[in-house]
Specification:
elongated; 2 domains
Length: 137
């Protein structure tokens, strides 16, 4: 973890301005905020999912349409929980990289991710080229 008096150096692409201390502080703050937001979202979604599972076991003579609707809602909630967990994992990984001085370097090719990309998507761990290549697979 970086110390308060330790300078964080994040690489930039050719032609990009170096990161300012204020920009780095804002990115770190955004990551911490995202982590807290995702943790709250997961807790809420898990409570909602537990309610749906409880409702699914009540009443043996339930209408098939109600059962289908409950199953659909349950599947949607499970998908939301998994998506929130994935986003949380991305934000935690980015924050760990930030705090250990490895933030801003593509995990695939080792080149800078790019300041513009990180300002828009602070959870990014890959440059645009590597991410596009990964998504095509």
């Amino acid at each position: 973890m970086t110390q308060p008096d330790q300078q964080v150096v994040v690489p930039v692409l050719d032609g990009e301005d170096p990161w300012t201390d204020e920009e780095l502080a804002e990115v770190r703050e955004d990551l911490v905020f995202d982590i807290k937001r995702m943790q709250r979202a997961i807790a809420t979604a898990e409570r909602d999912l537990a309610k749906l599972f409880d409702e699914g076991t009540e009443g043996a003579g339930r209408d098939p349409a109600d059962v289908g609707s409950t199953n659909f809602e349950r599947d949607q909630e499970m998908s939301l929980v998994q998506n929130a967990r994935d986003l949380l994992d991305q934000a935690q990984t980015a924050l760990r990289l930030f705090d250990t001085g490895h933030y801003g370097t593509c995990e695939a090719c080792g080149e800078p991710i790019g300041k513009d990309r990180l300002m828009v998507f602070p959870r990014a761990t890959m440059c645009v080229s590597c991410k596009q290549r990964e998504e095509r697979r």
